[in-house]
Amino acid sequence: MEKILVEVSARHIHLSRKDMDILFGEGSELHPIKDLSQPGQYASDEKVKLVGPKSTSTVRVLGPLRKETQVELSLTDARTLGVKAMIRESGDLEGTTGGLKLVGPCGELDLEKGVIAAKRHIHMTPADAANYGVGNGDIVAVKVVTDGRTTVFGDTVIRVSESYSLAMHIDTDEANAAGIAGTAAGEIVNI
Length: 191
What we know:
The chain contains four helices and 15 strands. It folds into two domains: about 10-120, no CATH class; about 120-190, Barwin-like endoglucanases (Beta Barrel), CATH 2.40.40. The protein is α/β, with parallel strands linked by helices. The strands form two sheets. Strands 2, 3, 4, 5, 6, 7, 8, 9 and 10 form a nine-stranded mixed β-sheet that branches. It has a six-stranded mixed β-barrel with strand order 1-14-11-13-12-15.
């Protein structure tokens, strides 16, 4: 079976239009600096300061804007800031916690929900899903062979859309546990 690109997703934030206006000024726009592997997604020049009960951190804003603001952290990032990050799929914010103050160049706001540790996942087109024999929402295990730290990532959710490009996303804690720096190759070993 063909290997899957495994990418490391560092801490970042997705902003709603309303929160973008508060933090960066009414009608402000994101300024893309780097395209990401998923079509239409990009890292912007804009950054937001996260102020937690224990510490602060600065994160890059990813675009485009979304319906709701969401902060994606590793569990280590969350503990360092002093907040709880629930493991969730991106966009699944119901019942999540907040606890962070977001500070931008033009304003600040208290985030009441939306702090998550993104559930590891694989983006696939329908053709990719057919090739691998999986469907949207399926849970698989993915083996990543690295020098001295080969790891099998269980509980990996399949996300299927025509707008996706084939890639698995893990956070920095997961990457560090497997000895991955940058990218790696993974193989689905359990369906």
